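[User]
Um, tokens okay?
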Amino acid sequence: MIQIAFFGKGGIGKSTIASNVAASLAEKGLKVMMIGCDPKSDCTRNLRGDVEIPTISEVLREKVQASLEIDEFIYGKEIRPEEVVFEGYKGILCAETGGPEPGVGCAGRGIVIAVDLLKRIGVFDDFGPDVVIYDILGDIVCGGFGMNLRQGMADKAIIVTSSDYLSLYAANNICRGISRYAERGGTRLGGFVYNVRGALDDIELVREFSERVGSKILGSIPSSNEIAESEIYGQTIIQRYPQSKVSKIFNALSERLMEGDEPVRPRPLTSSELSSLAMRIRGRTKEDFTRRKKDAERER
């Protein structure tokens, strides 16, 4: 069983990429499980036709009829696999960890406990997935979310990023967390996925960043109206437009993720190196803005 965790800045497209990778692997005949690790509980929706499913934390709270921290009542309670795991596209097993009630507990720690519950009730043994994909919330790897890395929950971490500064800042922070725990058996970095997020994106900047931290870009996902349309219908582009160019890119990415490349302990950039990167991004943005302004003036 291979376990892959997707990290990245909030809103960067982790769920889109993770669910399309899951769909692509399922199309190849693999038994796939995807676990959404976000209190919003919408990570697997495009594998389920936008149908909501009960989260692990919700089921646990219902069992005890009390608003307690998730780890206060998880152990020793009777939970059946069919209460927390649901079938999606091409038989993909879908689960959502959910999170604690607002103002109570730690969502990051809850993820670790929820995944431990899945192990305790025999989900991985009974269903026997070939691949488990985790879609994990977290711009900055706090202590709670750091538990996922420290305990080596996945075989490799994949960071999704664009070339804007905040995305790379978040990616660098995630690299810091990975680096901190990698030598103690924690999850290591498998690589980056570049997700195009507008006209200012620059793959060469992301490639340079990935190489400087000691890793590489595994795939580049272009901006696509077909992705947006597919998600309106609660589907992946793999399902809705299987012959599209972007679907073929996702198929290539899923194959790359299954290769036996050795994950690494990244070397995160220093604060001064990040500041230098920010200046370059601002300069590039200013140049593009000036060019667009001149083009608009010529068209008048």
